[in-house]
Amino acid sequence: MYGADIEGGTDPEIxxxxxxxxxxxxxxxxxxxxxxxxxxxxLSVQNCARILTHDEVAHHKELSRQVCGYIVKxxxxxxxxxxxxxxxLQMPRNQIVYMVRELCRRCDNNRDTDLIVRFxxxxxxxxxxxxxxxxxxxxxxxxxxxALSIFRDEDTQSNLLSAAQWRISNLKIALRExxxxxxxxxxxxxxxxxxxxxxxxxxxxxxxxxxxxxPGQPACIKRFPAALxxxxxxxxxxxxxxxxxxxxxxxxxxxxxxxxxxxxxTADVTEADELTLMVQMTEIPLVSLIxxxxxxxxxxxxxxxxxxxxxxxxxxxxxxxxxxxxxxAPALSSG
Length: 335
Known about the structure:
It is a single chain. By secondary structure, the chain is of the alpha+beta class. It folds into three domains: 3-136; 150-287, Sandwich (Apoptosis, Tumor Necrosis Factor Receptor Associated Protein 2, Chain A); 290-334, no CATH class. Helices cover 42% and strands 19% of the residues. The chain contains 14 helices and ten strands. The relative contact order is 0.11. Residues 331-335 have low confidence and may be disordered.
């Protein structure tokens, strides 16, 4: 069977078996390019989960993504079918990460949030969403693994690329005259950060806010932006950032600030010194969605989840701040 000879309507699973055989035999008579549209055009709610979890699909990234994309658009129908749900629970992590990333981008209501979170909890085999939240921060969420994030100035449009290095020359003067600030550009948010002086006169990076990149487009993850920041801080030729990646989360419209201390004392800084900052920033939409899920029905959350003991500090502070603010919002507005 040759690529050009495959007839339209050939069962996608038969095509995948032929692809697998050709790959195993190292025969070049058939490639995924010959078959991609033939498979995707025949996807249905009934067969999409079975096709996605076929062993051969793992060898073809674009096919995997297109099948995932099909399922994302029909997720509720697919996971409500017992056989399809059971098949999707066998997905490898790279597929679940891609699918969840796309689901989170589209999810804009409590019903879909509940469906997604409960499904991923089942997939993970954890007992609770709290356990899933803690674990998913260790997953590989990077859109481009290893790539440095882009910095931009406040007056630069978020769709215009700037630079992957934030170079602060004449460091002592810069700290004295105006605190240097940038945005770190993400997929869902641009993250406002600045450099200033904290305790013991040590330099620190302050995380001020997360700015929505798509205002006007509703999405549940916008209530609790969440990301990991893996910094490099080059000072006098040495990377002085020796910490693990820093997890940061904000509750929507509430002014929480977080900071990361650098091992640089202002007493050691001269006017000639320069600091270069680089970062791999990775947004974690599943954390955002789980926190939305918790906040949408706090009474249910307290009944089902041990958030007092199992929710990490930053996430707990974000959730409690959001809840307190909105519980007291009417009193604040009337006062």
